[in-house]
Amino acid sequence: MGKVENRLFMAELALPAVFSAPSGIEFKFDLVRVSGGLAYISGHGPIDGAKPLMQGKVGTDLTAEQGTEAARLTALSIIASLKQELGDLDRVTRWVKVLGMVNCAPGFSATPGVINGFSDLIIELWGPDRGAHARSAIGVAELPFDIPVEVEAIVEVDQEAQ
Amino acid sequence: MGKVENRLFMAELALPAVFSAPSGIEFKFDLVRVSGGLAYISGHGPIDGAKPLMQGKVGTDLTAEQGTEAARLTALSIIASLKQELGDLDRVTRWVKVLGMVNCAPGFSATPGVINGFSDLIIELWGPDRGAHARSAIGVAELPFDIPVEVEAIVEVDQEAQ
Amino acid sequence: MGKVENRLFMAELALPAVFSAPSGIEFKFDLVRVSGGLAYISGHGPIDGAKPLMQGKVGTDLTAEQGTEAARLTALSIIASLKQELGDLDRVTRWVKVLGMVNCAPGFSATPGVINGFSDLIIELWGPDRGAHARSAIGVAELPFDIPVEVEAIVEVDQEAQ
Hints:
The structure is a homotrimer.
Chain A: H1 3-10, E1 32-35, E2 38-44, E3 47-48, E4 51-52, H2 64-86, E5 92-103, H3 111-130, E6 134-140, E7 149-157
Parallel strand pairs in A: 5-6
Antiparallel strand pairs in A: 1-2, 2-7, 3-4, 5-7
């Protein structure tokens, strides 16, 4: 078992089913696309396979704390996609850039605290050096499936191990 | 004629005029910026030169189907910029990442279906392997010129051919 | 004194304090993350240390001109972060990609003019070749601390000089 998988295990965190299209629909994009030593990760949300685990706008339908939990669940969905794509999560040698998008109710601007739910888990699992990342945390008007949080990211991958 | 140009021709698709600033205005950005084997493509919309081909919010002013058509027209505008920048569209050897932004009316969250208008055309023209890409499809509050869709992208380019 | 620093000096532009978390809060992200010859710059706003210099929505609380000034101040905050990270601003050899986000009041779509406040200053300081960049300028629903403008960017960095 790799280091990151071991930390997931020790934290008793189970990965959700890999993000998939609802029945009768076909995704027109790849969950992860590797180019030149970087993996570009598509926007993910708090989702288990095709089933959203949380929905609604942060600030009305959901509290900031629930938004933070949604961001944490989003990290787990991304990790499930990385595991499927790369096999071994330790092949993600370094996080680079995160774009965190919050489905904000009008007037809710505490988006960094929400996206910390994502960043905290990544840093916990990969450690402060490899897990560190540049980030933006913004409020958007609408997200697919009315999910409360969506995150896309760029990570460095070890290509020798392929 | 290159492969991608040939497919455009066979599909009877004409490229619009390259995205340009309205009269009296000067763009402060490049349509395409190449760095390290990747071309970073600025946000484009359904536009012919400086003239928006569609305007308004998806969900009220425009239907989802019209939004999908706007995303398809956005792909054609990006292709026109790539052709101007690279000369030969076959120099785009691989698509990497797409950020699709929909100018959403409140409550319209079917953004993936709209951005499929973009992804479908790219995959049709470049094929399933080279055309595949990571993607996010989000709803934003406002877009320039009130266009209904804006897409920015990253692609791999063949630099040997320069 | 480097070229870019000299231009800042000649333009009588002072850099703000580096973007920092408000008292009692810890940032969960890096301001700048370097990977493979590129620096990925986190979302910044018009801010002096932890203190927003401007707040509110462009189109109601702020005019378009004030939004443009906010974008200019955002460039100075990013430059302060680059100086802290890289030591010498001339190590930024080339700008690549800018994502400009405007905190828009409903109906305000003149986002490119606002983000020109950022692009103009970068091109003034780095010159038209090194300062040129691909760009998107979009309107988002909410921004952290209710800042009017947020910009994230990717630049090429000279790693030999490290």
